TrEMBL record:
UniProt keyword annotations, A-Z: Membrane, Transmembrane, Transmembrane helix
Organism: Rheinheimera maricola
Keyword Membrane: yes
Keyword Transmembrane helix: yes
Protein name per its UniProtKB record: General secretion pathway protein GspL
Transmembrane segments: 203-228
Length: 353
């Protein structure tokens, strides 16, 4: 199994040129999407605090993954989106020694694909890629319900009439350089130590005898200072987290109380809709969390989140008393869950038949 993985990874490492400046290029390795996991976090911090937040998030992921890459996008004043890619241990084991630049496949696509154009990316597991006019990249594996391109575009709320285009990353990277801003390279640099067997002679042994105690003292001093600094920073971060947690819990309690009160008022005003509410709770209770339910006659609009919004759409479409099920807005991925807005038409008479 290890030899098979080694052959696959070596065959996929491509040394390409990226335009860093007008007359400057740099070599890189791009990582196929099956060998890393993406994490996204939106934060509202000042520019000075941004690096510390990135450092903390990276340290937390490095407890489970040996290689973590990052990039930052500015959303507005004092609001940033941090993207992290945690590379699998199997892939990291076969990375070349020394410095190298690693680029996740989906991050590389953001600099290749044109906005508002659907692409079918070739490979062992083909998938759809679509970049919106706001430069948000949507990717979905081409299987199951997502095989027709029209369903994928409807799921993300895209209105695109142009036919899809085939895209081969290998052919593109072999044919031309890919433009990449220099500041994108900061979080993509990886260093792998080259461990070599050491053979000390008599002089080297003597140098080692005197140098090691001095080096150990310097390391211990550096560790002590770093530990004290980290402890102070950790205490400040913990206090801020506790304050934010209390405020968030209070807000959640207020929201839950308001939702509960509105729910009972709606039940009292419209007792006929109670069966529908119980039906939706039974159908979606295990796969989705509903945040809002709007009822206008037979038209129902559901707002919520799920691990897979397309699974929610599929379950609702299979009900005999429910029709015209569709996404009203594009599906957005937030903290590993997909936010959705689905509208449908409820016809209780047909369900009774």
């Amino acid at each position: 199994m290890i030899e098979k993985l080694r052959a696959i990874l070596q065959g996929q490492w491509l040394s390409m040129q990226i335009e860093q400046a007008e007359h400057s290029t740099v070599l890189f390795n791009y990582i196929h999407r099956q060998y890393y996991t993406e994490f996204t976090k939106d934060v509202a911090v000042s520019w000075n605090e941004l690096y510390q937040v990135i450092k903390n998030e990276k340290m937390m992921l490095e407890q489970r993954f040996s290689t973590v890459l990052w990039r930052v996008a500015k959303l507005s004043n004092d609001k940033y989106r941090i993207q992290l890619a945690a590379v699998s241990a199997e892939y990291s084991a076969f990375l070349p020694k020394g410095f190298c630049i690693l680029i996740p496949e989906t991050w590389l696509l953001t600099f290749i694909v044109q906005p508002e154009q659907l692409f079918r990316v070739e490979g062992s597991e083909p998938y759809w890629v679509y970049k919106s006019d706001t430069h948000t990249l949507h990717t979905t594996a081409i299987r199951g319900l997502m095989q027709p391109e029209r369903i994928f575009l409807d799921a993300i709320g895209a209105n695109n009439s142009q036919p899809s285009q085939l895209l081969s990353l290998n052919e593109i990277l072999l044919s031309r350089p890919v433009p990449l801003p220099w500041y994108e390279l900061i979080g993509l640099v990886h260093w792998k130590k080259n461990v070599q067997q050491k053979n000390y002679g008599s002089f080297a042994a003597l140098f080692k005898f005197f140098a090691l105690p001095i080096a150990a003292y310097c390391v211990a001093l550096t560790i002590g200072i770093s530990w004290y600094e980290s402890r102070l920073q950790g205490q400040v971060t913990e206090l801020r987290t506790q304050l934010n947690t209390v405020a968030q819990q209070q807000n959640k309690l207020d929201v839950k109380a308001r939702i509960t009160n509105d729910y009972y008022q709606q039940i009292d005003r419209f007792p006929a809709q109670s069966n529908l509410l119980h039906k939706l709770s039974s159908l979606l209770g295990d796969i989705a969390a509903l945040q809002r339910l709007d009822i206008s006659g037979s038209i129902i609009v559901l707002t919520g989140s799920a691990k897979s919004a397309t699974d929610v759409l599929s379950v609702l479409s299979q009900q005999p008393d429910i029709s015209e099920v569709k996404f009203d807005q594009g599906v957005q991925s937030v903290n590993g869950r997909e936010q959705f807005v689905i509208s449908l038409v409820h016809k209780p008479d047909q369900g009774a038949e």
